[in-house]
Structures are given as C-alpha cells and as structure tokens.
Amino acid sequence: MGSDEFIIRCLNCGTKNRISKENLGKSPLCGRCHAHLDEMIIRCLACGTKNRMPEHRLHERPLCGHCGAPLVVSTVLYTPIEVTDGTFSREVLAYDGGPVLVDCWAPWCNPCRLLVPILDELSSKFAGAVKITKLNVDENPLTASRYHIHSIPTILFFRDGKLLGTMVGLRPREEIEKTILSLMKKN
User: Fold this and answer.
1) Three-class SS of residue 163?
2) How do beta strands 39-43 and 50-54 pair?
3) Which of 40, 74, 91, 174 is 20 to 30 A from 126, alpha carbon to alpha carbon?
4) 88 with 177, same domain?
C-alpha cells in the first residue's frame, strides 16, 4: 500500500477497499457491493439508535430516524433569538425550517429568569432543528395580546405558522424537551 492510499471498510458488506487520496473526496464505492464508502454510522445520543449517514450530508443537521433528535451537536453555544411585534411574523410565523418555541417573558419576572439557562441549553442542543425565540411581553404588547398571554412565563409552540401548544408557568427542562421532541417527530 502506497502512502497516498487508504483502506476503508465498507459499512454495508465489510469488505476492505483500497482508495487513493485523489479518489477519497469523490464519494468512492465499495468494489464488492457498490455501497458508498463515505457513509458513517452515528449513534443517537438521545435514544442510542445507529443511523447511517453520508459524510457530505453532515452539514444538513441530520436527525435520528427513530426519535428525531439531532445527530450532530455543535460545540458552538446558541442562544434564543429576540423577537418583537415587528419581527414576529417573519421570525416565527413564516419560518418553515421546523418547530419554533417562543418564550414570552418580562425582565421583572423571577420564574422567567429561572427559565433562561434551560432555554439556553435547549437552544444549543437543538440548534438547526428547532428555533428558540424570546418575546418581551412588556415591550411587545400586540403579539402578547394576540396570543392571550396573561401569565408569564408562557411558552408557545409553533410549526408552519400554526400555534400547536402552550405551556404556562415555569416547567422542568425535561417537560419542555419532551414537547420539542414530539414536535420534531411530526415531520
């Protein structure tokens, strides 16, 4: 074997294939079963299911085929996006990239402040799969009134511009995450 060749075992049939460096980036095929050799197995961190994924699709933020959880978790920290009366339609209602969570809060609300680290963690965990936003109800009374926000914190769950659910009051991270995962499964 030359220094410009690699041995890649086929995930489909187990055959060892000798691939040159120049052919490595061209989505090589197995010499025996003709399966793509750029596929990898990614185990879901949420449910443990093994998922077969072509390497060139990793940037698409793939989801587990069994539970819908993201398979690639970035180390970049994501934070919820601030929305206003003026940006709500564009950021929430017109968003077609999946579920949207809207945290309705106010700066003086102690339970709202306790929810901040939970939503920051979920924002990073589900980055690219779920859009997490924050709406200050004191500064944005039109949207708060439109969705009948009478108590805070209130979490609104949207998909394809439709309100699918509401959680009123401070809830545990597990309950919020369970709702997010159920929305992600409804593809």
Assistant:
1) strand
2) antiparallel
3) 40
4) yes
